[in-house]
Design goal:
Blueprint lengths: L6 H20 L4 H19 L3 H6 L7
Length: 65
Amino acid sequence: MEANVGTIDRAIRLVIAIALIGVGLGVVRGPRGIAMAAVGAIPLVSGLSGHCLLYRVFGINTCRR
């Protein structure tokens, strides 16, 4: 897969992911916390991989060439 997420975008995704996972597992207990951590996994994966499926669907590319 070709990267379509730029450096700044990746950093923002990673910060949001860490916050969601941290709050979901550390502060919010029960099913809501697990759901919050699961939602945080989405930007974590796209931030680490540099590829976003929604960006591909909409033709967005923030990665500089």
